[in-house]
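Bumping with the actual sequence this time:
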Amino acid sequence: MRNKIIAGNWKMNLDWQEAMELGNKVAAYVEESTKAEVILAVPFLYIPVLSELTEEQPKISLAAQNCSEYRKGAYTGEVSASMIRSAGAKYVIVGHSERRKYFNEGNDVLAEKVRRVLENDLQPVYCCGETLEERNAANHFDVVTTQLETGLFHVNDDGIDKCIIAYEPVWAIGTGVNASPEQAQEMHHFIRELVKSKYGNHLSDKISILYGGSVTSENAEQLFKCADVDGGLVGGASLKAIEFSEIIDAAS
């Protein structure tokens, strides 16, 4: 049985006080009895202080929302995977649709980021997903296949064993429109079959595949019941402590 994972992506939100308050509220809610693993993907500068919080709460881990494709050097404004590890994070989101769209990150660059993450004993949360135009053109399976084969499937068996995949239909992110459970299950099953064809049954059965795209407390339970949906990558709802706790409950 794969454990459910609920990852909250705070994106570029919350000032220092708001971030500390939300982090403490989530930590207070998550207990030893909580079955799902909880990941908080927070802005870089909040990782060190929130890592102190998560040291006392084994069910919660921290993720960075991005990292540089470079190991170190004269890259002003960039943050390396080694810095992220030393600050106390366990995971790094790679290839979020907003990074692809607004910062023109292609699959080749994302492949380098995955390498940097794994080199530093961190775990990638690798995002893939199609736009509305690509789905309407019935190209969504081809798009996701290319994103995975180019950006992620260069890693060996040990590497993929450390990865999480997040399917995020771009047309559902921040729009209030989520994929139906049937659409989510169809794509998640397709992704698992791609992993199976590359890495075999054992790793395809083991890898966690999260759904991301307007996950709320109202639709979470139905989405998480799908056989190949192993939890959620939650955006706006993760900024609301009560609703986020209800989504965690839906995965438990």
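The tokens above came from a reply further down the thread. The beta strands are 5-9, 37-42, 60-64, 91-94, 123-128, 164-167, 208-211, 231-234.
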